[in-house]
Amino acid sequence: MWSTVEGRFALSILLVWVFMAVLSLVWTPQPLWATDGQQVWQKPSHNHWLGTDGTGADVFSWLMAGSATNLLICLLTVACAAALGILLIAATVSRSALVANTSIVLVDALISIPTVLIALILAVPLGASVVVIVLACGLGYGLNLARVARPQALLAARSDYVIAAQVSGASAGRILVSHILPNIMPVVAVQLSLSAGSSVLAESGLTYLGVGVSSGVPSWGHSLATSVKLINVYPLTALWPGLLVTLVVLSLNLFGDSIGDAIDPQSNSALREAA
Amino acid sequence: MSLVVEGLSVEISGRQIVRNVSFQVADGERVGLIGSSGSGKSMITKAILGLLPEQATVNGSIRLFGEELVGIGEEKMADLRGSYMGAIFQNPSDSLNPVLTVAQQVSLPLRLHYRLSKGQRQQRVESMLDEVGLDGHVAGKYPSQLSGGQQQRVAIATALVTSPKVIIADEPTTALDAITQRSIIDLLTCLVDRSGASLLFVTHDFAVLSRVCQRSYVIDHGDVIEGGNTQVLLQQPQESVTKELVKAARTLTLHVSNHGQ
Amino acid sequence: MRYLVRRIVLFILALWAISILIFASLRILPGDIATVMAGINSSPEQVAGLRLRLGLNRPLPAQYGSWLKDLVHGDFGFSMLTGRSISEQVAARASVTFPLVGLGIVLALVIGLTMGCLAVMARSTRLRSFCHMLALVAGSIPVLWGGLLLILLFSRGTGLIQIFPSQGFPDTGWRRPAEALQTMALPAATLGLVVGASITRYTRSALNDIAGSGWIDMARSCGMTRNQALMRVGLRLTLPQLVSVVGLTFAEMITGAMVVENLFALPGLGSGLITDIGNRDLIAVQSELFMLAAFFLVIGLIVDLLHRLLDPRLKESTVTGRGRS
Fold it and tell me: Mind telling me which residue stretches traverse the membrane in this protein (chain A) (predicted)?
């Protein structure tokens, strides 16, 4: 992964992200709530590295604190998506035709429901919160994972290995863990890192719409949404949060691509033909 | 000479797939390339047809009726493919376009190379289908509705419809069962001989090779290690790889004939 | 045929499940729904009147039953706030959202297919990797920020080149198409660029995968060049997956559409729904959520059936999801 420029770029950005998130729990350059009414819309300076916003709060400190929230959302979403996706894949390769077919058609039917709609439905009783983002995105990305990994999972389930294992009496769970999951691992890994990127994008969208991270909790979506309101007056403040989100999402996508190449050299079509 | 390959080398992503291979195919001759899978024999046919992946670097010379093919560019290669060269691939279900009917598939080289009226084209396609032993009612069907043997007949008809002077067949019978294999081989040799074309036949199976080719080359790790009359190779293999291939063919053939009784 | 029957049965079941989910999520609100809807400054009599009028004093299953019955009959109720019928309100908003999403999709397809093909077929490898990188970067931009950048570049008032309006939709609606279309320009471009990036990435990876396949070799062996074969055979054979991807993109696009509608102050379905949620107009929210969900389930159904129709091999559908294959 370190061997390509893209891989190095992605990994560096992601490491900085994690470092900043952890650091922000104990230290930020300026205290988050130390707002100074005299110092609104400051240009970047020694004290305020990226300037201040309309309440006089330090933009850099808020972005740093937001990185922790976004990391949490990202990890929880990926965990939810992985759990749901693997559960659905297990159902798809089930030996019971009823379970398998139902799970296939269920995924096909539900996958067309946009995550934002789920988020809106959940936000009515729950209000804006991290939970809404995690549940809505986890559901959507889990369904997507199940759909994307389906062909490989079915192929693996019909392979000679699995049939031999079934004949020799291995349990369905054992077959799933030792034969099917290893075979779909490349797809799953790639898909999950793409989901991680999507969850960062989803956070900014949902928070802007008022159904994401609750107000008062720092997040990149909030930083972006706040700066948007005064775009006509102070266009440059919108630059930083947007740039940050773009960089991180780009890194997560590049990370996914390099995982794909690293785990699965067969995706290099030239080598596949030569083999 | 229909086809002369001299010092051909192919390298893909730093891996040498074909090394310094030379051989020739005379007019109307049927020549075989034999080797185990991964020996690089398919890459030789791809190099001749200009179908190598884009990252591949090709060195050496490939001459078709005296014209150099290495480095002439994709447009000129496309002009030669389907008119001077016909190709048949290993697995018809992976090569026949699934959304074209048999008639559309077979007429494709005609449409790409010649300005014929619809009637003329139809006539040519019908007679070609007849030559490969397919009924007229197959013409409107899709490949997925045909058996493996029928699909390979369609592929042969497509390769031969423009009466090309060189036919390149890459493991055309490997995906088929033993009985279909034999009928397809006999059909192919018969049609190639009738049209006076040369045939470059790639296989891993000496039993098939001995039925098709007068002269053969044995390929291993991208090298030509032995060449000559097929019957001589079969009876007095010199190299260990050739001996292995001959032995494999003997056991398989025995197995098949025992099975048949 | 068996798939069709199963798929339609599941479609109806999914629709039903969604209706329960929506109903339940609106009824487990903390506090009494009528109190919430009536607002803080209402008298107990007003609340009681509202409860009676909406039938909120009946048991939940009965409420759900009558809502479902109304839905089946196409009666979506009335907005508490404006008093207009919800179907009328939705139709008015849809006249903004549908053209917006439609323009966005068309733009995304034009951009995505062109760039995706260029990334595989361009003669210069530099141009190829440029297209690929551009799509990767554009696909990582949050819609909100993308819209913002377009405003900063092209809007009247704040932009560098002041050509398009950035706020609102004319009251005259589509009766003056030129004006209406102008307000759509920046929002649709935002959607088109962001979604176009993901279609580019998909097209590129699908074409790259198929470029090494036997079908392309076969077409080339008949006399096509690589690019001819990719255009005439490759694109056709990836079409079923492309349809699925566009269908899924369509579903994802609605998030973008909602953000864009809010950013550009367009009175569409998305911004309307957000407003209704903010106003606690829960009867409207309930019906609107259901209509949107139903719409996307229908899209999903159509996409699935189209996918099967386009794939003459009728093999197990190897559907590819969003993004990479």
Answer: 9-27, 70-93, 105-124, 130-149, 233-255
Q: Beta strands B15-25 and B198-203: pairing type?
A: unpaired
Decide if B12 and A275 are in contact by the 8 Å CB cutoff. no
Determine whether the interchain pair C221/B81 forms a contact, defined as Cβ–Cβ distance below 8 Å: yes
Q: Which chains touch A (3 or more CB pairs under 8 A)?
A: B, C
Q: What pLDDT, on the 0 to 100 scale, is given for residue C315?
A: 44
Is B3-84+165-260 a domain of CATH 2.40.50.180? no
* Fold of the C93-278 domain: MetI-like fold (1.10.3720)
Q: What is the set of domains in chain A, with CATH numbers?
A: 61-266 (1.10.3720.10)
What are the distances in angstroms from CA A86 to CA A110, A184, C305? 16, 10, 26
Q: Taking CB atoms and an 8 Å limit, are C221 and B159 in contact across chains? A: yes
Residue A91: count of CB within 10 angstroms of its CB: 18
Kindly tell me the burial class for residue C268, based on how many C-beta atoms sit within 10 Å of its own C-beta (0-12, 13-18, 19 or more): buried
Task: Give the H/E segment covering residue C297.
Answer: helix C282-310
Contacts of C222 in chain B (CB under 8 A): 81-82, 108-109, 112, 158
Residue C206 per-residue DSSP state: H
* Strand B3-12 to B57-64 pairing: antiparallel
Contact call for residues C281 and C79 (beta carbons, < 8 A): yes
The amino acid sitting at B50 is G
- The answer to whether residue C70 scores a pLDDT higher than 50 is yes
* Average pLDDT value for residue range A217-246: 82
Residues of A within 8 A of C22 (CB-CB) are 121
Lowest average pLDDT, out of A3-7, B33-37, B210-214, C132-136, goes to: A3-7
Test A260 with C324 for CB contact under 8 angstroms: yes
Average pLDDT, chain C: 83
Q: Has this prediction a pTM greater than 0.90?
A: no
Residue B86 distance to chain C (closest CA, Å): 7
Confidence of residue B253 (pLDDT cuts 50, 70, 90): low
Chains that touch B (3 or more CB pairs under 8 A): A, C
Tens digit of each residue's pLDDT (9 = 90 or more) over C23-42:
888 777 655 667 766 666 77
Cβ of C224 and B53 within 8 Å? no
Question: What does the alpha-carbon distance between residue C252 and residue C270 come to, in Å, rounded to a whole number?
Answer: 13
Write the ipTM. 0.90
Whether residue B53 and residue A268 make contact (CB cut-off 8 A), yes or no, is no
Mutation for testing the B interface, residue in C124, C221, C314 having most B CBs under 10 Å: C221
Residues of C with CB under 8 A from a CB of B: 212-215, 217-228, 233, 236-237, 312-314
Which among B9, B10, B13 is the top mutation candidate for probing chain A, defined by the most A β-carbons within 10 Å of its own β-carbon?
A: B13
Question: Where are the domain boundaries for CATH 1.10.3720.10 in chain C?
Answer: 93-278
Q: pLDDT over 90 for what percent of chain C?
A: 25
Q: Looking at chain C, which subunits does it touch, using at least 3 CB pairs closer than 8 Å as the criterion?
A: A, B
- Residues pairing with C155 in the sheet: C164
Residue pLDDT, tens place only, B156-201? 999 999 999 999 999 888 878 888 888 999 999 999 999 999 999 9
- Check pLDDT > 60 for residue A267: no
B202 burial level (CB within 10 Å; 0-12, 13-18, 19+) = buried
Return the pLDDT at C322: 32
Position A64 scores a pLDDT of 86
Q: CA-CA distance, C305 to C7, in Å (whole number)?
A: 9
Q: Which tokens in the block code for residue B48?
A: 């001749």
Per the CB < 8 Å rule, is C214 touching B95? Answer: yes
Domain boundaries, chain B: 3-84+165-260, 95-163
Distance from the A270 Cα atom to the nearest Cα atom in chain B, whole angstroms: 6
Task: Give the number of A-B residue pairs with CB atoms closer than 8 Å.
Answer: 19
- Summary mean pLDDT of chain B: 89
Helix (H) / strand (E) containing A273: helix A269-274
